[in-house]
Specification:
The complex is a heterodimer.
Chain A (H helix, E strand, L loop, with lengths): L2 H9 L5 H19 L41 H11 L2 E7 L2 E6 L2 H9 L4 E2 L25 H9 L5 H20 L7 E2 H18 L7 H11 L2 H4 L6 H27 L8 H6 L11 H14 L2 H16 L1 H9 L4 H12 L4 E6 L3 E3 L2 E3 L4 E5 H4 L35 H18 E12 L8 E10 L2
Parallel strand pairs in A: 2-8
Antiparallel strand pairs in A: 1-2, 3-5, 4-10, 5-8, 6-7, 9-10
Helix pairs in contact in A: 2-10, 6-7, 6-17, 7-13, 8-10, 13-14, 13-15, 13-17, 15-17
Chain B lengths: L2 E5 L5 E5 L6 H7 L19 E4 L12 H8 L8 E3 L13 E3 L6
Parallel strand pairs in B: 1-5
Antiparallel strand pairs in B: 1-2, 3-4, 3-5
Classes of the chains: A alpha+beta, B alpha+beta.
């Protein structure tokens, strides 16, 4: 446990966590003001201005910087990663805005790094950039064994298949409600109306969060995943980030205590995350370890949000780019489960996970030094011609569609993979019985991030089935 | 014909012919036995080829190494004779072996 975590956990016995966060924020502001005109510069939150990204073939290898948060938006990621895969599959960028880092871009090398957690640590965080100063959340995606194992086990049953079976009916009902309310006489924004709405409903169900306030979960996820310092996202205003964190912890702490009271009054424990944590030996007092408490919640919220949201949008886009596949799907809806895997590969909603080398490691003819940051670019491995035939094609009956990297491999493999697959399967089952055409109008808008490969807006026009 | 019996969670039985040198995962997927996903392609890195070996056959399947133990640890359906099928090398001596599939792969 970090010193900060110990201090916060101890202080929490006396001062509520959300007030502590406010205090940390004030202290940081004072510190940064005092440091301003001294040689000890305060840590600066980077702001990214969008410039046109040059053609990768005009660059020397060491000039290639795939941390650029506009690489996806400007549709440059394919030639950039192809060049790295072909010419320099384990690539070192020594001076990015996020500091030096290695990129691993071929499928087999990525699988190797992901599997060898004894060589590559997930601590302290899986984003390229640092965590915001003063907010060192502790989450098990960013822990090594043995701590990781204990934490993961205490919460994984919330998304275990057994639990999902119980929830499938509810998820389907909620999807039906959303789809039945969509307009068919005019174009609308698919991202807002479907992708965000469905994932928000799902998260509110998983967390037993007040249903009418579900947009708050989307907001929290956007702030964490869109942090400028961590991923090059648009949330650079630390006042806003701190406010969101304090607000989140206050609400979830209240939710925790409310649930405890209800259970004490005889209510049966639910299948939601907070109930599960309250009934697990390792996490029953987690509310007193707020950085862990918040970390677990943030992980579920972010992990269940950007990923599924952008796969819901990406699937529609893919079927528009490959219209023959939509015909194939309509003729044979039993292809939906296989198509879901293909969507998750084709979209790869989270572009990478970060590791730190625990010792010197030889990989692809290069020596990664102990302490170096290493990014496993799933988005590149999922398009690796050495492993996948015609990788840029979207093929709904692709053989071996499940063998994609989007969920990662090894002990950190995505815990919510079955939930994600189920949500997407239900969405497509319900879409096919309602609509004959799902037409993308114009170009979608893309998210600014080096981590989230996603969409902020996509206009769609529906034609009802006759 | 030397064979192995794989029983799905709902009781459906699949008898597959032994092919020396293959892994149990390959044997299952080559014979289209449902319920073995093998997402990582046999690298002991995803846990989606989980099987529960019949008690008396368990010692014949070898010993699960550390990597395999860790992946098995992640499934709630883990039993005392759980293995990952990709880590079991098939031999002629396994004629008659029975393995059960879990209800879900994680």
């Amino acid at each position: 446990m970090s010193i900060e975590a110990t201090v916060v956990n101890t202080a929490t016995k006396f001062v509520p966590m959300h007030l502590q966060i406010k205090a940390i924020h004030r202290a940081l502001k004072v510190k940064n003001k005092l440091l301003k005109n001294t040689p000890f510069k305060p840590r600066k939150v980077p702001e990214f201005a969008e410039l046109p990204i040059p053609d990768v073939n005009t660059l020397a290898l060491d000039e290639i910087d795939v941390s650029n948060p506009f690489l996806f938006r400007q549709q440059q990621w394919q030639p950039y990663f192809k060049r790295l895969r072909d010419e320099c599959p384990v690539h070192y960028q020594k001076s990015s805005p996020f500091g030096p880092f290695w990129s691993v871009t071929r499928y087999d090398d990525i699988q190797y790094v992901d599997k060898h957690h004894e060589l590559f640590s997930s601590e302290p965080i899986i984003f390229l950039g640092d965590r915001p100063e003063g907010l060192p959340l502790e989450t098990f995606i960013a822990m090594d064994p043995p701590r990781h194992d204990v934490h993961r086990k205490s919460v994984q049953s919330v998304v275990a298949p057994q639990n999902l079976k119980e929830m499938e009916g509810l998820i389907r009902e909620r999807a039906q409600e959303v789809l039945d309310s969509l307009p068919t006489d005019k174009p609308f924004d698919w991202v807002q109306a479907v992708s965000i709405e469905l994932t928000a409903r799902m998260l509110a169900t998983l967390l037993d969060y007040p249903y009418e306030n579900r947009a708050e979960l989307v907001y929290i996820s956007d702030v964490v995943g869109g942090n400028a310092e961590s991923t090059g996202g648009t949330y650079a205003d630390m006042d806003e980030t701190f406010k969101a964190a304090a607000d989140m912890v206050k609400k979830f702490t209240a939710l925790w205590h409310d649930k405890k009271r209800r259970e004490a009054a005889g209510e049966a424990p639910g299948f939601d995350l907070i109930s599960l944590m309250q009934n697990n030996e390792h996490t029953k007092d987690i509310v007193n370890r707020p950085l862990e408490f918040m970390g677990n919640l943030a992980l579920l919220v972010v992990g269940g949000n950007d990923t599924t949201r952008n796969s819901m949008t990406g699937g529609v886009l893919a079927l528009n780019e490959f219209p023959n596949e939509f015909q194939k799907l309509k003729q044979n809806p039993s292809l939906i489960p296989n198509m879901v895997s293909e969507i998750i590969r084709w979209q790869t909603p989270l572009a990478y996970m970060r590791r730190v080398a625990k010792q010197d490691v030889e990989l692809g003819g290069k020596t990664i030094k102990k302490g170096d940051k290493v990014l496993m670019w799933y988005v590149s491995g999922n398009r690796d011609e050495r492993k996948i035939d015609n990788p840029d094609e979207f093929i709904i009956d692709r053989k071996g569609a499940r063998n994609h990297l989007s969920f990662g491999f090894g002990i950190h493999r995505c815990m919510g993979n079955r939930l994600a697959e189920m949500q997407l399967r239900i969405l497509w089952e319900e879409l096919l019985v309602r609509f004959d055409k799902i037409e993308v109008i114009g170009e979608p808008d893309y998210v600014q991030s080096n981590f989230v490969k996603g969409y902020s807006k996509m206009m769609v026009k529906l034609t009802r089935k006759t | 014909m030397a064979s192995i019996k794989m029983i799905e969670h709902d009781g459906t039985e699949h008898e597959v012919a032994i092919e020396d040198g293959k892994s149990l995962m390959e044997l299952a997927t080559d014979n289209a036995v449902p319920g073995i996903d093998a997402d990582c392609g046999g690298d002991c890195a995803c846990g989606t080829c989980h099987v529960i070996v019949g008690d008396k056959w368990f010692p014949n399947t070898g010993v699960a190494n550390n990597d395999e133990q860790q992946m098995l640890d992640m499934t709630p359906e883990r039993a005392s004779t759980s293995r990952l099928a990709c880590q079991i090398k098939i031999t002629e001596a396994m004629d008659g072996m029975v393995v059960r599939l879990p209800e879900f792969q994680m």
